[in-house]
Request: fold
Amino acid sequence: MPALTEPAQIGKRELLADFISIADAKEKPLLAMLPKSRNLTNMLMQWQADAYASPVLSGVADGKDVGEFENAGANRALIKNYCQKVRRTAMVGDIAENVSDVAGAKSGELARAVDKKLEELSRDIEAVLGSDNDAVEETSSSTPYQTRGLGTWIKATAGTTLPVPSAFLTPSASIDSTAMASLTQSTFKGVLKSIFTQHGKSQNLTLVCGTALKETITGFTQYQGSSTNTWGTIRAFNDKLDGGKITDSITAFEGDFNTVVIHPSLLLANNTTNAPTRRGYVLAMDMLELRWNRMPRVKPLQDEGGGPRALVDAIFGLVYKNPLVGGKFAATS
Reply:
């Protein structure tokens, strides 16, 4: 009788590793860094912006009485945006939840599904914040409320829905659409100069940008030699290279007017063709606010016999206190 060999064995147990691996680990810099508040009590948000009058250089004659009075609120205007609700749902079968022993789902399939949907919901919010979405007023179940994203806040034109008052629109000089292959350090600095011209304040700014724009900025440390396709890289090393490490990344740009800290993102302008990797927003974070009515929550739903169900949702709106100080890179090629 032949010996029992492994290929012929009956009843072998399956070796299944007790984890589920997801490589996708996108960061959400806007959701992490925007100032937060929870004073959202209406789907229409409104706030005021104002501007100082231009300096007066002329003097006042001795003995001249006051004959005219100024209106200190003459430049004041309302800026508005709608809020938005986002939602994800999860359901698993009765047997799948209560009988099956699934590797990597120690707390059950529903618990894992809820965790996954919470992550997806937070990505939805991040993508909305960095989108070109315009404000939308709800008119039916097929036309829900929508909050204005950064791509539409930072525009030189007012738009049609809840238009930004003309005095507070982002100047065209603060918005650059130069193709990535042609974007230079001088062009980049021009956007920063325009932002300073509006704000008049040297400060730390934040640039949230796509991968192509990030690589282009790192390329500012290079120079082009005599040959069109020959590049050299300027590097200054303060330490010995005994460890074999070379740093080739720009994480902050200190210019004449502002210092810009750079954060790459894969969730910008996702609804705009060819734009996500080239998009960038230059932000003064104190001019922004992520306003919550409902922070992401988990709500169990009734099990009607088929298995447990749940939803995760949130209600939020993006406040741009004064878009004058925004900056944007919006190349399409």
